[in-house]
Amino acid sequence: MARKIIKSKYFVEEDFVEVLAEVPAGGSSPLPTNQEMKVIGRPVTRLDGYDKVSGTARYTFDINLPHLAHARTLRSPYAHARITAIDAREAAKMPGVLGIIHYQNVDQIPWYGSSFLFDPHLRYVGDEVACVAAETEAAASAALKRIKVEYEELPFVVDAAAAMKQNAPAIHEGGNIQGGKPAVYARGDFDAGLAEADVVVEETFTTQVEVHNPTEVHCSVVNWEGDRLTVWDSTQAIFSVRDTVAQSLGLPASQVRVIKRYMGGGFGSKLTTGKYTVMAALLAQRIGRPVRITLDREEMNLAVGNRPDSVQKLTVAAKKDGTLSAMSHWSYGAVGAYPSGAACSWPLRTIYQCPNVKTEEYSVFINAGPGRPFRAPGHVQGTFALESILDDVAEKLAMDPLEFRRKNHATIDQVMNLPYTSKKLLEAYDAGAKAIGWDRRRKVPGADKGRYQRGLGFASQIWWGAGTPPAGCILKLNRDGSVRLIAGTQDIGTGTYTVMAQVAAEILEIPIERIQVNLGDTAVGPYCPLSGGSLTTPSVTPAVADAALQMKEKLLSAAAAILEVPQGELVYQRGEVRHTGDTSKKKTIVEILREMREQTLLTYGARNANPEGYAINSFGAQFAEVEVDTLTGHVKVIKVVAAHDIGRAVNRLTLENQFHGGILQGIGFALMEERVIDPQTGKVLTVNLHDYKMPTIMDMPEIEVIIVSEADTKISNVGAKGVGEPAMIPTPGAIANAIYNAIGVRLHSLPMTPDKILMALAQKG
Amino acid sequence: MSNEENGNNISRRKFIKGVGVGIAGSCVLPSLEQSAIAQAKEGGDAVHGGKELLSLTVNGKPVRVLVEPRMTLAELLREKLQLTGTKIVCNQGACGGCTVLLDGHAVYSCHMLALDAAEREVTTIEGLMTGEELHPIQQAFVDKDGYQCGFCTPGQVMAAQALLLRHPRPTREQVLEGMSGNICRCAAYPKILESALAAAEKIRKS
Predict the structure, then answer these.
(1) Chain A contacts of B125, Cβ < 8 Å?
(2) What is the pLDDT of residues A472-523, one digit of tens each?
(3) What's the topology of domain A63-154+215-265+270-303?
(4) Contacts of A194 (CB under 8 A, 6+ apart)
(5) Which fold is adopted by the domain A3-59+467-606?
């Protein structure tokens, strides 16, 4: 099939990325609707289900090799310090110790742009000081305690507001504001918009630092064979791990192979290559043995990313009829000690129609663990603030909050001035409002009089939904009629193995049990994007469809040659090619391959280019019902209705599961999760799963998932938009508005813990 | 290695020279087990020595093994017995990722010493299977999609098993309580609830 190379631009997590991509030259034709499908759109159980429930799924954490050594990391006990001396001689003599590396015996390998793998300038509690390989983890841990390090303690700052001040301790040369200046955006004339408004509301919201805490700790197992390195890594991005490791070690990327079969969650924290992987490779090289390196739960809460906090000052101005006339967003957030992103104004810039908008955002360095993308970075905290203030504006206008949003519905992307390929947000409002019973909503907030007060609230969501080329898939059709799919994507727990198989099963009309999927190996699979940004399904399933359609063509062509009839007179059905007129003329896959004397037929499918001149986004609205215990301040989320436009639903079962997970993580962010740092010492106080509160099954509300969209035929043959991030974005905002509706007092700070609820109630009097 | 040669970059030649040995080069080293036993005989060492003989039943089979007293049950299962279905998540008894059955009751295996399981019966996720065949609870988790990444799943399944042993006909509330000690960060909770209820139904009918 004809190909061309194009430039493709897409948004991932925090930035626009431009790549060159090989795509089908003819574009793509949409597949039929889900009503006409037998496998796509159905609740198909996971291909990897058996492995996961039987305990045989082999995660990176479980990998064992002959003569495996174990590595542990020494981390800075100080928020800000300089190493003046390090002496590892005594540690090296301890039983079982095999090797120790630190800044004095390793070449300076650049990291974080301006720092190094081992940097004697330590910028947070948890920054890497040294790494030990030993016969056992226990021996390695014991040796860490015997490494003598002298530190010169430096003044530190663990609060973004303090870090922005002139005389604050400098974490990097060039000051504590990342990039030296804020990110700004403006359209229209904000002041003019303000002048013509009838209602102006200004409020400040704060959100906390949230930590990913996937269940499988970050870990790698590395093994050298000559000058070739194999890395098993718990990662969302096998190709970027390959490239970073290769670059750090001065190897060609082709000599590094990265494998990830099963992985215990990531949520963004595993998008970035870890220092630990490179440290393990260096140790393995020195000791001549494979090395397994794992972090423990404390390190997970210090050193592998978090959602930056935010202080957001919003101004929203509207006319009497409910039209928005101006909006502004000024914010700052702590990215930690190394570059990340704290911006969160995108929803405000795009989701509602408003001609006059300005934003100014500061990403601020502090002496704490660096941030990383976390499920819808920026959008979760930005949406909480935006949707909260919009409800307050609606109340001032005496408008129903939903009516107010409908009134300001945006039909185009106002930042890029492009139409959307599809936007079914109004349909989501209707479906969601009906399902939650929006007309039950208390017209007067805080109308309930008893101890338990209930309320309803909702929030809208926007996210990038397109996926992107390049994404490739190899399809092997075996002589026995079975299929093997090979791609360089990775299933991070979302069901990628299964949705890819579904697409092939649908098109080739082969039972899904006869399809095997190999993912997560840079040496085998064609390049696919990282698994983040809700990119995976919209990127990789079209490549599978392309490969499967080509395979069908190949079978038809082969059968035409064998049967000596024009190909146009043949049809493919359920693993057989038949003649439309003469029913005796037919060939099965097995027969075709046998007569071709082939063991396998191969095709290579590629993701098409995204359409020019469109913005591609997912949309949705979530409606929450809460009950506030006014005696204890405890909030119980009773029900959440999630009504979304995510293009085609490929698997109803895994899709629901994604929504459940996103909503529950949204509940965690709204009500309980918070990383706490002691301002006196700069130490993180919430370094385990006892102190860092995450939702359990007891926090689960009733959840109803409604998909208002069909395939978005402008995007790709499959027409799916991503689901992972949309699922979480509106949840905290919806809960915040429901709490306001229940108790009649607005909370401006997440998490909305019982103490804050009680204080708010006390202020209300 | 210092940076005297070429600044920020590792010398490739030096690098390749260093890695040539690979796995094979390490065969001559005595195994940890041997050296540890040797040290134990000589009076022990804080890290490797002082091993105790432990006998217990794991998945129906008697096991006799030398363990360091500090070793947890989870470490014994994973490292000594290679039963890696049991996961370590928080290593502190806060999340249930390592749940196994001890004499039919759910315990956090990261939170108890292996020696405390002496003469007792441990069942892990591997022990729930009959040969290659899934237990009805495991099958229910597949049918209902009671997981996402699957890392906490062995613990969830074992918690469900302990629950159903105590309450063969659990109410929704009993399931919630029985499963509340097991954190799923993917938060597949609605489908975990469905899985446990479906498993109870399945077992009842069989």
Answers:
(1) 53-55
(2) 999 999 999 999 999 999 999 999 999 999 999 999 999 999 999 999 999 9
(3) Aldehyde Oxidoreductase; domain 4 (3.30.365)
(4) A200, A315, A317, A325, A326, A356
(5) Aldehyde Oxidoreductase; domain 4 (3.30.365)
